TrEMBL record:
NCBIfam families: nadA, PRK09375.1-2, PRK09375.1-4
Family (UniProt): Belongs to the quinolinate synthase family. Type 2 subfamily.
Function: Catalyzes the condensation of iminoaspartate with dihydroxyacetone phosphate to form quinolinate.
Protein name: Quinolinate synthase
GO BP term, example: 'de novo' NAD+ biosynthetic process from L-aspartate
Cofactor note: Binds 1 [4Fe-4S] cluster per subunit.
Pfam families named among the record's database cross-references: NadA
Localization in the cell: Cytoplasm
Source species, domain of life: Bacteria
Cofactors: [4Fe-4S] cluster
MF annotations from Gene Ontology: 4 iron, 4 sulfur cluster binding; metal ion binding; quinolinate synthetase A activity
Organism annotation: Micropruina glycogenica
Catalytic activity: iminosuccinate + dihydroxyacetone phosphate = quinolinate + phosphate + 2 H2O + H(+)
Length: 304
């Protein structure tokens, strides 16, 4: 079988032959994140950067909703996902019909939809958000109440920060919902001389309460880059610590983490295969795509 170096060399050659770029989420394994990616980031950065791609082909090393978002913003380009089964518990938690039902129950209340959803759900929405801009976008709407779907925990965390009332949906990230306040208390007990705890806002509010800071994956990386804590715990997916630790060897990372099985479907071998065979191509019904794109473009228009 091919070694990691064989795969990396083949991917580099194929990228040039196909005029392809690799966009990778912060949860990719280090050999993908550091080894072969052209653009890395959180969901917001990947959406923003997708609008600037000049290559003919985008390989999205991440999960399906991220590839759909890249396709929405690049309808004429080929967008590939290395493994079609890379789903997301949040995206799978809600259907377009459920969004229409929420609208019927709450007429006139804007529908704010987390980017971790299918294009069909985005198509039923007024505006998209990510964990990196949710507070800013909700505040920009200037309304007392929103339908905020499908992450009940992100919704609760944002409601507390903004004072805007949220009607939500019982979705959750299968990685972040598993953290408990006890996990964080245990980390602090293990390091009585101090540890800075950063949590993702997809964690339940009682977990965020125990942390020193909550933010998207990019906001966690910025925190480490700017504050250079001596010791840090990233309460999120496991590859984050592996990737950031390589960039900041002066910072000690303690690693209470949970793996995302969907993100972990991405491997060097599958990315190589994806570029060799030009599979799996992401397609979106044009009528759905037009409406979904509008909700993503509204988000990008609000700005940082
Ligand atoms: P962000 O990288 O936008 O914080 O999202 C985290 C996540 O769970 C993506 O699936
Ligand atoms: Fe979905 Fe959570 Fe995995 Fe992100 S980490 S893809 S939100 S299940």
């Amino acid at each position: 079988w091919a070694t990691m170096a064989d795969d990396v060399n083949a991917i580099m050659r194929l990228k040039a032959e196909r005029n392809a770029v690799i966009l990778a989420h912060n949860y990719m394994r280090p050999e993908i994140f550091h080894g072969i990616s052209d653009i890395v980031g959180d969901s917001l950065a990947l959406a923003r950067e997708a609008t600037t791609v000049e290559a003919d082909v985008i390989v999205l090393a991440g999960v399906h909703f991220m590839a759909e978002t890249a396709k929405l913003l690049n309808p004429s380009k080929t967008v590939l996902i290395p493994d079609l089964r890379s789903g997301c518990s949040l995206a799978e938690s809600i259907t377009p019909e459920q969004v229409r039902e929420l609208r019927r129950q709450h007429p006139g209340v804007p529908v704010v939809t987390y980017v971790n959803t299918s294009a069909a759900v985005k198509a039923e929405s007024d505006i998209c958000i990510t964990s990196g801009n949710a507070v800013h976008i909700i505040e920009s709407l200037g309304v007392p109440e929103v339908i905020f779907i499908p992450d009940q925990f992100l919704a609760a965390n944002v409601a507390r920060q903004t004072g805007v009332k949220v009607i939500t949906h019982p979705g959750a990230c299968e990685v972040h919902e598993r953290f408990t306040p006890l996990d964080i208390r245990q980390v602090r007990a293990d390091y009585p001389d101090g540890v800075t705890v950063l949590a993702h806002p997809e964690c339940p509010p009682e977990v965020v309460d125990e942390a020193d800071f909550a933010g998207s994956t990019a906001q966690m990386i910025n925190f480490v880059a700017q504050q250079r804590p001596q010791r840090v715990a990233l309460i999120t997916e496991c590859s984050m610590s592996d990737n950031v630790a390589q960039q900041y060897p002066d910072v000690e990372f303690v690693r209470p983490c949970n793996l995302c099985p969907h993100m972990k479907r991405n491997t060097l071998a599958k990315i190589r295969h994806s570029l060799e065979t030009m599979t799996h191509e992401v397609t979106i019904d044009p009528e759905v795509a037009d409406r979904a794109r509008a909700s993503v473009e509204r988000m990008l228009a609000v700005g940082a």
